[in-house]
């Protein structure tokens, strides 16, 4: 079928047809005992490509925070996907920043480094519109690694068919050994195929994590991430990037958790913006965050938010370490 034969189709439908024609189908071996497969699947890509959205969609619940702003994800996070005969240890990673401007970004990139070395499978997430300039070295590293790679072209709901077709061809030339799968993480398109493909590449192995475990991160991490997400959604420009959230105290009680969290900023002027006139801004931020934390914990929560200034924390290695960043 020539590319032009697809032209009247909706990109999502095109994506499904593409898969039928091009994705190497995994053959089901006829075996008497179904073997357990397990492995590490590292999700990589530029900022804002939909890596966290993809992770959440696979799990059917919100584990990683998502905002329309680039560089929302700051730390590598493991999420463990289980079936009876399968365990996929997914890593959501911060988006690759090609030119860092401050030490926090360097630390975010330091968290990605090991993700190029400890994977059984790479899932590279990109969309059909974003150029690939400057990625040559990274892609060469992936190509040389010989680790099975699935290039996921995300957000097919947003692109034209022509853009999608071009992007598929482009990725075939960039990573000839990789397989390519158009998806929409937001609409759940082709996620079943993604799981099937990843599973076919994983080695036979016992589970690495307890099957009840969902993540390597403690509950407090998710609480701080929810607050950080609300800051990203409520404030513009540099403010979200200048903020960190830390839990000062967390008291678990029957039926109610009392949480005191600090929003760390770099300057007094940022503190004033977050608090807002008469405390209006921080009040709304607290209400939004509390509602989501309660839904996540399935429990009532008393949330006390305070803003603290820690001058230039994003550029100070000792302070970054204190806030949980990699050196
Ligand atoms: N239309 C559409 N939007 C999507 C899709 N997937 C993700 N998005 C949006 O893209 C934006 C970025 O999504 P994220 O999941 O935070 O992207 P990320 O790659 O984790 O971003 P970083 O934190 O910068 O690394 C959000 O506004 C998502 O809602 C998709 O399939 N379709």
Automatic annotation (TrEMBL):
Segments forming domain KH type-2: 227-311
All copies of domain Era-type G, residue ranges: 37-204
Region called G1, residue ranges: 45-52
GO molecular function terms attached to this record: GTP binding; GTPase activity; ribosomal small subunit binding; small ribosomal subunit rRNA binding
Residues given in the record as GTP binding sites: 45-52, 92-96, 154-157
Main subcellular location of this protein, as a coarse class: cytoplasm
Chain residue ranges for the region called G5: 183-185
Region (G3): 92-95
Stretch list, region G4: 154-157
Record-stated family: Belongs to the TRAFAC class TrmE-Era-EngA-EngB-Septin-like GTPase superfamily. Era GTPase family.
Membrane topology qualifier: Peripheral membrane protein
Location relative to the cell: Cytoplasm; Cell membrane
Function: An essential GTPase that binds both GDP and GTP, with rapid nucleotide exchange. Plays a role in 16S rRNA processing and 30S ribosomal subunit biogenesis and possibly also in cell cycle regulation and energy metabolism.
Region span, G2: 71-75
Keyword tRNA processing: no
Subunit structure: Monomer.
InterPro entries hit by this protein: G_ERA_dom, GTP-bd, GTPase_Era-like, KH_dom-like_a/b, KH_dom_type_2, KH_sf_prok-type, P-loop_NTPase, Small_GTP-bd
Gene Ontology CC: cytosol; plasma membrane
Keyword terms: Cell membrane, Cytoplasm, GTP-binding, Membrane, Nucleotide-binding, Ribosome biogenesis, RNA-binding, rRNA-binding
Gene Ontology process terms (BP): ribosomal small subunit assembly
Name of protein: GTPase Era
